Amino acid sequence: MASISADSLHLLTALLSISIPVIFTATVVEDLDNLQPPPDFNSTIINNCLRNPSLRYCNSTPFDLHQIFKSTIVASHLCNISSNPNCVESFPKIDLHSQPKIAPLYLSFTFFWKYCPLTILSIDLSNNSLKGNFPTDVFYCSQIQALDLSHNNLSGDLPIHNFSLLENLTFLNLSYNDFTECRISDSHFFERFNSTSFVRSGLVPNHKEFRIKAVLLLVGFPVLVLVMVVFWGWLCFFRRRNRHMFTPSILKAATDGFSVRNLVGRNGRASVYRGVLRDGSEVRVEIYLDTMSIENRRRFVEHCKILVQLQHKNIVPVLGWCDSRRLMAIVTEWVDGQNIETWLSTCNPPWKQRVQVILGIAAGVCYLHEEWPQVGYNLKTRNMMLSVDGEPLITRFKLLDDHHSSTKKTYEFGMFMLEIVTNRRAAKELEKSVDIVEWVKSNYPDNVENVIDKRMKKRVEIVSEAAEVLEFGLTCIDVSKSHQPSWDRICDLLSDISSTAISSASGDRKTSRVERGGRDRQHVHHRGVE
Ligand SMILES: *[C@@H]1O[C@H](CO)[C@@H](O)[C@H](O)[C@H]1NC(C)=O
Ligand SMILES: *[C@@H]1O[C@H](CO)[C@@H](O)[C@H](O)[C@H]1NC(C)=O
Ligand SMILES: *[C@@H]1O[C@H](CO)[C@@H](O)[C@H](O)[C@H]1NC(C)=O
Ligand SMILES: *[C@@H]1O[C@H](CO)[C@@H](O)[C@H](O)[C@H]1NC(C)=O
Ligand SMILES: *[C@@H]1O[C@H](CO)[C@@H](O)[C@H](O)[C@H]1NC(C)=O
Ligand SMILES: *[C@@H]1O[C@H](CO)[C@@H](O)[C@H](O)[C@H]1NC(C)=O
Ligand SMILES: *[C@@H]1O[C@H](CO)[C@@H](O)[C@H](O)[C@H]1NC(C)=O
Ligand SMILES: *[C@@H]1O[C@H](CO)[C@@H](O)[C@H](O)[C@H]1NC(C)=O
Question: How many Å apart are CA 20 and CA 75, to the nearest integer?
Fold first, then answer.
């Protein structure tokens, strides 16, 4: 049967800080099966714990005497086969390197690991073809300084959190295993060991790469946030830039579903609605009835993109456009007031006001001529407005009409001046308007009084000023070759008239308006000097 050896007694004394009589034989399994704890094992353990409370089994109450006893047997075997120099004195290492036959067996003795002797500082389980998950029982030996599990077939998640138990661990080798890659949140774990601890472990190819990954992630997240912020910023900016784009639904809402109540005008090509945007601002919505080709839509948008940039007190602010396939529209600020034709025919404005209107429109035209020569506009008195505060406004633009030659612009401006003086409508077509032109010509310069609006008082200075305007108008109308003045010259001339108006202007409002005209004039002159 079992024999008691003095050596084994000493061994266990060393291991468990006790003196227990233990029977020790060849194979561990046999011993585990056959050996029973001695009768006084109970009191022995208690005495040991009194002497050394840090012993692991002291924490297990009530004592599982059988398990504690079995663990001493395993310990003695392990110490022996691990080639510890003196198992009676110490048990510093578990060396199961390249012992694939017995290593799994020892790993299976959970009761041993639970009472892992405190003397063990190194565990080597390398090159044993160990399969399955990381052998977490080794964490019971929390005092170890070295752990080698390289060259096995361990797989699954590395229980990284448990490694914090091994606070004195300075050597770790998990190389050549099949672990699944670790989550980055445990990156500090990898900082304790360099890449040689994880060679082809499945964990992280190497420390540097891991650090790059960690850095990428640490940096990547803020960068992602930044990118998103920038993206949103861009979106907002984009939306701001495209605050000029109106959708059909916005316009529908603004005009009460394009209700007849809000329909304020209609011409061959467009319906004009008055609307109120959500922000409360009143707008004029001109909806084009023609269906446009893709090319025309593109050009329409190009034109509108320019129009929204126009900024002049005598040009109605263009707020934006709609270029949906089913609805093409241009949106301008709503102007309270009346069109200049109505104003002329119903108000019989005094001469000075007429001059102010000419100068205002001229200022707008000169601005367009100088800054936006590509913009076409409509100078018909019917299509220009006089706001309630007396400012004349160019309100209609020639979209999709690239053929607004300088000659035609000048002609239209000339006709506009004649109308202001005479209160006679020009015929619609350039060719058919010969009558008013001929009529003015026939009375100029000798009978200027005949053509001046009959309702106006015809003081001498008014007649002479009107004659100047008529002369200028006729010059503009003269499409025959080189007679027409250039726009640079027109703008200069008009600013001269403007200064005449300054000298004869009276009243606060007029003065302020003339001052503005004066600024425009300076601008014109400045250009003229260049
Ligand atoms: C061990 O000793 C304690 C007290 O010393 C006693 O209560 C317990 O029953 C004993 N257990 C065995 C299994 O002898
Ligand atoms: C293990 O112990 C036996 C005696 O029980 C001894 O003969 C043998 O040399 C020991 N082996 C090692 C590696 O220490
Ligand atoms: C692993 O163990 C085998 C025998 O089981 C041996 O031939 C081989 O050299 C060992 N490899 C390492 C790296 O220790
Ligand atoms: C680590 O070593 C220190 C000093 O040697 C020791 O006090 C501590 O208990 C050890 N930690 C563990 C978990 O054994
Ligand atoms: C164990 O891993 C080694 C490489 O480390 C491999 O050659 C072997 O096929 C694996 N064995 C099993 C059963 O997965
Ligand atoms: C390992 O950590 C898990 C929690 O992450 C814990 O439940 C388990 O008890 C630990 N194992 C050991 C042996 O300490
Ligand atoms: C990696 O760590 C081991 C000890 O764990 C050390 O021997 C080796 O020099 C280290 N290598 C590098 C590149 O730091
Ligand atoms: C771990 O083991 C592998 C393979 O045996 C070896 O290349 C590597 O250097 C070892 N790492 C350490 C830290 O000793």
Answer: 14
How does pLDDT run across 177-194, given as a tens digit for each residue? 998 876 544 556 667 788
Which of 156, 189, 207 is the last residue before a domain boundary? 207
> Residue 129 CA: which ligand 5 atom is closest?
1
> What atom of ligand 4 comes closest to residue 142's alpha carbon?
13
* Separation CA 269–CA 271 (nearest Å): 7
42 lines ligand 1 (CB under 6 A): yes
* b/e per residue 239-276 (b: at least 16 CB within 10 A): eeeeebbbebebbeebbeebeeebeeeeeeebbbbbbe
Collapsed DSSP state (helix, strand, coil) of residue 422: helix
Residue 412 Cα to ligand 1 middle (Å): 120
- Residue 136 near ligand 6, beta carbon < 6 Å: yes
Claim: this prediction has a pTM higher than 0.70: no
Which protein residues are within 6 Å of ligand 2, measured from CB?
80-81, 83
Q: For position 306, which CATH number holds?
A: 3.30.200.20
Query: What is the distance in A from the centroid of ligand 2 to the CA of 395?
Result: 110
Task: Measure Cα distances from 391 to 55, 315, 394 in Å.
Answer: 100, 10, 10
Whether 525 is covered by a domain: the verdict is: no
pLDDT in tens, 49-107: 888 888 888 887 788 888 999 998 899 889 989 988 877 777 899 999 999 999 999 99
Instruction: Decide: helix, strand or coil at residue 281.
Output: coil
Protein residue whose Cα sits closest to atom 14 of ligand 7: 194
Q: Is 183 helix (H, G, I), strand (E, B) or coil?
A: coil
Amino acid at 45: I
Query: Which domain, by its residues, includes 491?
Result: 337-519
Distance 75 CA to ligand 4 centre (A): 21
| Number of domains composing the chain | 3
